[in-house]
Amino acid sequence: MSKQDKKQYKKVLLAYSGGLDTSTIVPWLKENYGCEVVCFVADIGQERDDLEGIEEKAKNSGAIKCIVKDLREEFVRDYVFETFKTGALYEESYLLGTAIARPVIGKAMVEAALAEGCDAISHGATGKGNDQVRFESAVAALAPHLDVIVPWREWDLRSREDCLAYLAERNIPCKATLKKIYSRDANALHISTEGGELEATWNEASEAVWTWTVDPMKAPDTPETFELTIEQGVVTEIDGKKVTPFECLDELNTRGARNGVGRIDIVENRLVGMKSRGCYETPGGTIIFKALRAIEQLVLDKTTRIHRDHMAIEFAQLVYDGRWFTRLREIIQAGADELAKDVNGKVVVRLYKGHCDIIRKESPNSLFNFDFVTFGADNVYDQADGKGFIQLYSLPARIRALNAEHRKQQGK
Questions:
Q1: Alpha-helical runs (H) found in 300-350
Q2: What is the value of pTM for the model shown?
């Protein structure tokens, strides 16, 4: 499609990272859509170096404005902690660090686009990943009248060499080089790494893959212990000190990282159908997740715990697939919030060479009662009651066996 055939826009908001791809997208949008470009940067706790000088970089690429929005507290409070209440783990191991970040970015992008009078939104996600679905689903749910421009589906640039040449022809400065071994995504919850030697599943992840956490084998020889206070499914204190959601995650990231906690190396199923391998570092999130589950062990009865497990699987799939802004997410979240009202108490955490163990736990809502479980004498449990219970509990199996015996005797 030629430039003349394309719909033209007055102003487009671009999800901007300052990397090679989005630096290339700025002039490409101007040339192909005749628009002004507003860059939007979400501060969700990524490396501070990634944000240094980013506004100047965006303007040097041709943007008329660069908005940097601090979303750190909102991200942890309304997305990370809310997801943790559900117990969500994608494919039994991934704490959804990238997936949880996309809805808070998408929401802020839409708000900025509307405030700036933009008539379209653009992003640099490729057609092979999950993020295209997550970002565009957010726009569809929050501002369906806004168009979405996805350069990777349109342009003829196919490599880093192409992008660098494109910028060089236009005298646009860029510090990116041809050598890019890994693809990384970082925020307050995690760092993900893909590419390089990870593209072959038989290759062990080298130390170059891990950028945040200490090698567990090189972690301190002395265990680190501390106490967490949990109120309605949220960690509110560390060693008795009140902390905000972001402060909590930030502090536990530091403690977990220096003890080698939170590393996983997995092959996952992407939404678009292919498998991908990723190494994830989620030190603080791993600690919080285990602390919440420890209190749940005390306060959830058997059937409620089973329900929570089902809810966790469904919520993980929902978040991974970019369906945050749906009624189903709101309904499951409401259930998780109700369940979390009982998740109150304290835990003592021990970190040691990659391990995170909960060694003490208590809750005012605990269903654990020594009088019932003791092997000693008690006045609250008549063991003779077990006979009638088992007879009723095993009744379906007994009926099935009796019916089978009867058919056998009848020669059937």
A1: 302-320, 327-340
A2: 0.91
